[in-house]
Amino acid sequence: MNRPADHALVEGPITRTLLLFALPMLGTNVLQSLNASINVMWVGRYLGEAAFAATANATLVLFFLLGLVLGIGIATTILVGQALGARDVDAARRIVGTGLSFFMTVSLVVSVAGYFATPALLHAMGTPDDARPYAIAYLRIIFLALPFMYLYTFLMMVLRGAGDSRTPFGFMIVSVVLDIALNPLFIFGAGPVPSLGIAGSAVATLIAQGLSLGGLVAWMYARKHFLCLRAADARLLLPEPAILKALVLKGLPMGAQMLVITSSAIIMMSLVNGHGSQTTAAYGAAVQLWNYIQMPAFAVGMAVSSMVAQNVGAKRWDRVATVGRVGILASLGLTGVLVLVVYAFAGGAAAIFLGSDSTALGIARHLNAVVVWSYLLFGVTFVLFGVVRATGAVMMPLVALAVSMWGVRYPFALLLEPSWGADAIWWSFPVSSVVSLGIAAVYYHSGRWRRATMMPASAAA
Questions:
Q1: Does some domain include residue 23?
Q2: How does this chain sit within the bilayer (predicted)?
Q3: What pTM value is reported for the model?
Q4: What's the rounded Cα separation, in Å, for the pair 212 and 224?
Q5: What 8-state DSSP symbol labels residue 1?
Q6: Domain containing 254: what range?
Q7: Number of structural domains found in the chain
């Protein structure tokens, strides 16, 4: 049987342990972005700029939907990590059972509701008329794939809470290879497979996610993973009020953080859409590059959260501050390399998605020059948030993001757009990043997050 001690994050040298845990997570994030980039490259190069703009709008809706449950997944990661840090496997299994029931229910509700609400969602975003039919066809298939995506995300979060980031990385490789291989098949058709156009890209994602999820579940049961639930554990699927309350009360603010980010991106997209399909296509290409630049921050931040959670559960507070410092340095180093690469090859990188003769290429090169450096600040902020939320302090990160993105980014762009044009949108990104980092740094150094808890001791017992 796979044992909790196999992936303990409370022992050994902190730098080595954090990097070995974070690198598979970074690989997972890079593969996800690579997968998305290759998919939109097929669409942008062979179906036109209107179809490319459609995928940019639909992808934002997808990120918004994943953000709905991502907070619950992060809360599950932290609770599992704290339970295993305290060597309480029974509590970890109870957390998994309650979380699984929640994810299954929410995924089905969102999938059905979203399928029928797709046209209204895209209309509310101001999706360009020439891109809207493509976006509807693509997004509706994505809604059908959503339950697989939700459950896949949940299992990855559980394994990371248990200290295992390698297994999710291995199955992500399978998912990405399948998706990349199936995309041209379903977009253009071959033999008995019909040509589905942009909808074919979404069908490939649905199949890849479903098969990878099935493979991961089969692997966990074949290995007799200690967190697997069997027929005798059916009672664990009945949500425990104390655990469900902790998942919701702590998970919703963390999910709201992602909703603030993605909803802000959707609103910013509506401003970008107002400048026409070329600007939207340029922005969509730039976002593909930004996804890669953000990957180290997300990977290191999530690794820091898992590692801090286990150390908090084990009452190893002496290691927590060091984990934070190492995480900041790792994020700056990894993000800095990518920032330099994008500045050196920004034009060529954007041409991958738009084509070397695209009229949107100049716009993409300009907005990258304005925005890219600010992701260094974002990386530090995300690591600080990763430390504090692992103790249960989830409200201040939400406040910081809401202030910076809703109170600074959008108003800045909206007020200056009449005089600055699209530049007001681009400059709103670094300005809001400075504000969020300032708030995060002040709160972290206050130390008040150390008094937070994920779940009262009496409820955990």
A1: yes
A2: Multi-pass membrane protein
A3: 0.78
A4: 18
A5: -
A6: 15-460
A7: 1
